[in-house]
Design goal:
single chain; 380 residues; alpha/beta; eight-stranded parallel beta sheet; two-stranded antiparallel ribbon; 14 strands; 15% strand; globular; disordered N terminus
């Protein structure tokens, strides 16, 4: 398909953009890109860490993706939950300002990029997705890959007491969706007791961040790397809460994209049925699109086949890992060998045939990968 969508004075809604023939290009891995820029994100807040001390580097990363052809930027808030921020001594008001600032950074990058376009060139509308990582990523032990939320982690002093009061566990390491421990170090934590995190606790974990991101002007909320059905149910409750308690009206009555983490084409990371997860979200009126992220490209394609059969009318999203390969047995990254070369033209062609409406990259996907994806879409 050829690109035919450009911004107009009416600022067409995201749902309208997705109805056009050509898939939308999402950005890639923010953490990957920041690290390639020499930014140290070995911290519990991972790619959200620069919000505290060097936010302009995030704007630079956003700009790199815009130059690569991204039509949707995800905010630097994957690890910036209220609970995670509280562990770093950041109170609710400061947390709200950080989240709002992350949205502003994305908007700033979009506005500045528009000024660099050649005179007379038509500019495409770029959307902002409020990134919401799962509870498992905050735990720092790879639980987003297993859905094993049944441990309360014993950390230090008041942090333990505060988080237990909220009905959740604690940890002092950071991870994004790219590895069980992004910090590269081992924190002084230990599994204390098997006490399942319930759906109400997961609702509390997600709701405040979602409210602030939506009220700050995101075009859509992007719930990423969801490993289990209980978290998906909690997120749907969050959407209902946001819709009834904010002044903003969702474009086309859609608020969010839900992206799952899957161990196989048929199973979520938790081992639960992908079919059951799709059935859960299929009829919710506030869900804009459904898909998967942080999986190998071949697995993403298989998941798209399954999801399309289960969700025949729902827009799909796929943004797998590129670059290095995550070895799930060794829990480490390794270089991709020649037999694992990705044919982007073939990949995009299959996704296009399945009706995947948003494509991008996750861990290992820098601006060059997004540029290659955008070029493949144009050739499709």
């Amino acid at each position: 398909p050829t690109s035919t969508y450009f911004a107009s004075s009416l600022m067409a809604a995201l749902s309208e953009r997705l109805s056009l023939p050509n898939p939308m290009i999402l950005d890639g891995g923010l953490g990957t890109t920041l690290e390639s820029m020499g930014v140290d994100i070995k911290h519990a807040l991972w790619s959200s860490y620069p919000l505290l001390h060097n936010p302009e580097v995030i704007a630079l990363a956003h700009t790199a993706f815009l130059r690569a052809g991204a039509e949707m930027l995800s905010t630097a808030t994957y690890q910036a939950s209220f609970l995670g921020l509280s562990r770093q001594g950041i109170g609710p008001e400061a947390a709200r300002e950080l989240l709002t600032g992350a949205v502003r950074l994305a908007r700033k990058a979009i506005a500045q990029h528009a000024t660099t376009l050649p005179k007379g060139a038509e500019s495409r509308r770029v959307f902002v997705a409020g990134s919401c990582g799962p509870y498992g990523a905050m735990l720092g032990g790879g639980q987003e890959y297993t859905g094993d939320y049944g441990w309360i982690i014993d950390a230090v002093g008041s942090i333990q007491e505060s988080c237990e009061h909220e009905g959740l566990g604690t940890n002092t390491t950071g991870s994004g969706c790219c590895s069980p421990s992004n910090t590269g170090t081992t924190s002084h934590i230990s599994a204390r007791t098997a006490a399942p995190v319930d759906e109400d606790a997961l609702f509390r974990f997600h709701v405040d961040r979602a409210m602030v991101l939506w009220e700050s002007g995101c075009d859509v909320l992007l719930f990423e790397t969801i490993p289990l059905i209980a978290e998906a149910r909690a997120i749907l409750r969050v959407l209902d809460h946001v819709a009834t308690r904010t002044q903003r009206t969702a474009q086309g009555n859609k608020l969010a994209i839900l992206s799952f983490q899957c161990r196989s084409p048929d199973l979520l990371a938790s081992g639960e049925s992908l079919s059951a997860a799709c059935e859960l979200v299929s009829t919710h009126p506030l869900v804009l699109a459904v898909g998967c992220n942080c999986v190998p490209p071949a697995r993403a394609t298989s998941i798209m086949h399954v999801m399309r059969s289960l969700l025949p009318a729902t827009p799909l999203i796929a943004y797998p890992n590129f670059g290095s390969v995550w070895d799930e047995r060794k829990c480490a990254w390794r270089e991709r060998d020649e037999s694992e070369t990705i044919d982007l033209d073939a990949l995009v062609s299959v996704w296009f045939g399945l009706g995947v409406r948003i494509i991008g990259g996750c861990c290992g996907a820098g601006p060059s990968h997004i540029a290659a994806l955008a070029a493949a879409v144009k050739r499709c």
